[in-house]
Specification:
Length: 383
């Protein structure tokens, strides 16, 4: 694993010269203002690749950078297979990063040895997508929730039992009725409550929620989202909330980061991104949110084409093969993450949120007259 210089501060890195990435390719320079002083979690130029047959590579996460401020909820959204769950798992090195840096509470996780990483993970916990399979079916609920305390030898047996009782009660379960039962005796929503209680036992500072409601009924989703908000306020948590449902993310997130095929497309305050999306892919995601009123007028243009393979992603902008605004520049150049307003960043050569006609909009505010549009249904072969 390639690890950057741990002495380099994340804030200064935002304006530093590009550093070599995998295969000697320079990582894109980061825009000023992307990172914040005092951020509790900073992800910088994160790359995760997996081996594939015949010497190929799966480009799961490619040069992703963002931070999470103390006490906020950052929503990480995108369709299935875009790399958002891999990003969350790579942050705590469940999946090993190929390159990049992850700094948590002043400690670079990507530079830690096994024992130091194990201890650091007590302060950054993960709630898994499938609540039932993440719980040991042979153990009782009281033992599942108490396991982190037992492993780290925290408190006396009586103190542990009281903490388990408090945690199970806090997530809305009756301790006396639930403590001696096993996971298969609970519904999916109840199992997710047990998973949340377990994640809180070591007093974490950051909780990574990996699609915690995607496997649940809609009515149960609302209960779990309200529970997460309550736990965040009660325990002073910082959340990285991963999901593919933008309607869910909007209700819980302070900021939203949108991913497509391993790359970050857009980042900004939740309300601003939903009201004024700057990337064509974000527009398409928002248009896919179901409208509960059947009489409401909708002007939805479907995205053309299929999702490219992460083994052989398109050159330049990875969304260009499906983008109705794709031009030759989108084939030739990878769009860097660029500031388009306060707290707003987009990786697009022709962002929608800039002023003026699209033909004159560019990542730097203006550009020469663009080349003729590429036919989206028959994209050019990657160089």
């Amino acid at each position: 694993m390639t690890v950057s210089d741990p002495a380099t501060a994340p804030q200064s890195a935002a304006t530093a010269a590009p550093r070599p990435g995998p295969g000697g390719i320079a990582a894109a320079p980061l825009p000023p203002g992307l990172f914040h002083d005092g951020a509790v979690l900073t992800v910088e130029h994160l790359v995760v690749e997996f081996p594939a047959p015949r010497g190929r590579r799966v480009h799961a996460v490619s040069d992703v950078s963002f931070d999470v401020r103390d006490g906020e909820t950052l929503g990480l959204v995108g369709e299935s297979g875009c790399g958002k769950s891999t990003t969350g798992r790579a942050i705590i090195r469940v999946d090993r990063p190929t390159s990049g840096r992850v700094v948590f509470d002043g400690t670079e996780l990507t530079a830690l040895g096994p024992e130091a990483l194990r201890r650091a993970r007590t302060r950054i916990q993960l709630i898994f997508q499938d609540p039932i399979s993440s719980l040991n079916p042979r153990r009782r609920v009281r033992d599942i929730v108490a396991e982190p305390l037992a492993i780290w030898q925290r408190g006396t047996p009586a103190e542990r039992e009281q903490r388990v009782r408090d945690a199970i009660t806090a997530v809305g379960l009756d301790y006396d009725a639930a403590a001696d039962r096993r996971p298969h005796e609970f519904s999916g929503g109840q199992c997710q409550r047990i998973s949340i209680a377990r994640a809180l036992m070591l007093d974490p500072k950051v909780v990574i929620c990996d699609e915690p409601v995607s496997a649940l009924d809609v009515s149960v989703q609302a209960q779990i989202l309200n529970l997460l908000e309550d736990m965040k306020a009660r325990y002073g948590l910082t959340l990285l909330f991963i999901a593919h449902d933008l309607a869910v993310v909007r209700n819980i997130s302070d900021r939203v980061a949108v991913m497509y095929l391993g790359r970050l497309c857009e980042l900004g305050p939740s309300d601003d991104v939903y009201a004024r999306p700057a990337h064509p892919y974000t527009v398409a995601l928002l248009a896919s949110i179901p409208e509960p009123d059947p009489a409401a007028a909708r002007n939805v243009t479907p995205i053309a084409g299929d999702i490219p393979s992460p083994i052989d992603p398109p050159s330049g902008c990875r969304f260009r093969t499906r983008c109705p605004f794709a031009q030759q520049r989108c084939t030739d150049e990878v769009p860097p993450l660029t500031a388009i307003g306060p707290e707003r960043f987009v990786a697009c050569h022709f962002p929608l949120a800039t002023s003026g006609p699209r033909s004159s909009a560019g990542s730097a505010g203006s550009s020469p007259e663009p080349a003729p549009p590429i036919q989206v249904d028959t994209p050019p072969t990657a160089p």
